[in-house]
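Lab notebook page, bench 4
Experiment: in silico fold of construct C2
Operator: M.H.
Input chain length: 117 residues
Purpose: comparison with the prior construct
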Amino acid sequence: MDFVRAAILRGIDPMVRVKDHTRSSVLKMLDIGATGLIIPCIETVEQVKKLVEYGKYYPTGRRGFAMTRYGGFGFDEHASGTVSEYFRIANNETLIIPQCETRGCLDNIEEIASIEG
């Protein structure tokens, strides 16, 4: 995952296209530092709700949290405040892009686009 580190070192927000919409695919890329995910072949509202649950912190989602050096604690400005402030900033700055590639997704696009997160 050197490409994520290389992007960060050059001041580029790393966007990653994950292989599917599973929890493990979403968390792996976010945990190594991706700031945005592109998720292929989304078809249902339920899939998008799960993506938000996996990829966002409380109160928007249910992503796990640990105060780690990698998360910037003790080093980065965005991680110098309270945990609630960290969650707010991380949720605002983590981009989740479901790809609409099927008729099923197109049939649900209005509801999908209205989901918080």
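Observations: The chain has a mean pLDDT of 89. Strands lie at 15-17, 36-42, 95-100.
Next step: discuss at group meeting.
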